[in-house]
């Protein structure tokens, strides 16, 4: 049985995806805009030995599986077509594969994963040491500043934007996100802000430029820190803003008026959340506010970390997601009074759509800069995450807490004053 016939048996005739294979067979909607090409039997080996997203990633990243058309649309259609597959369907697929001598030979050989894959090991008690965290952050963020400039755009903001209107651009939405954080924190001239996991310094520069705040950002990525310091100097903000290549746990200054954590909590780890929020609480003056912005799970029934999954092995080694209620409880138990929280799930889907377009627009330059395998990782990861936010497999929450004064004063307005 040809590969195309196997595909057709699984998803039905006339699927809106054209599949072609190295054996010359084809199935699905001929001349469709969305195409999948199985270039070698080794693609099937990856899929059989690692079913699901990990096997798909290995086949695609190595180039044994190729695609044509918008990656997000392809993943959405393939997800819809395969949602109804049963265990029996998958077993029949395996049986059909084993009937082909060429495929049987390929599947009998377990291939090494591509070099972009990281194996962090199974020993959870070593996770989130300073050394291991630095290595995990470097894997993802020290790819290439030029690559990130192409993907993220001028804002260099690698976190969920907030779109104030349907027709807002990505840059407008990133500005609005930083401004929303600043307003929730109640920033005013002369205040001191600590931004942990500051990335390329977007929040630090926004607070200094638009609010007259003295802002310190810290990041474990050396490339980010170097880029940010250069950008701060070029913007003439060196008297107010600074970014250091530093673990947040090594910040010695205190008495900050506000702390922002935008996209760092995902890297902290469940076991470290109590000490993390206690540390940030200790850095604030009484009356100071913390804005925690992070990706969350839609519930707490699923595992916080999928050690063998695509995201953990290719994108965020040691990353862990918690439900919004759990994070809020940890903030509360660390001493913060919770004053506001909101879910920006749909905004992250829109943000990722913008990043996907940017990558496609700069595909040739990106491949030349970081290599085709790494560029393929990013194309697959961002398109898949966009689908995840749209389907409510993952969410994005901002949670605002305040460190009360000794007499219980929160210094908060009676009603939120930060608008939409």
Describe this structure in words.
Keywords: Lipid metabolism, Methyltransferase, S-adenosyl-L-methionine, Transferase. The chain is α/β, with parallel strands linked by helices and 420 residues long. It has two domains: 3-107, no CATH class; 126-402, Rossmann fold, CATH 3.40.50. Helices cover 45% and strands 16% of the residues. It contains 17 helices and eleven strands. The strands form two sheets. It has a seven-stranded mixed β-sheet. Strands 2-1-3-4 form a four-stranded mixed β-sheet. Helix 2 crosses helix 6, helix 4 crosses helix 17 (372-390) and helix 9 (170-184) crosses helix 10 (202-211). The longest helix is centred in the last third of the chain and has 19 residues, at 372-390. It starts with a helix and ends in an 18-residue tail after the last strand.
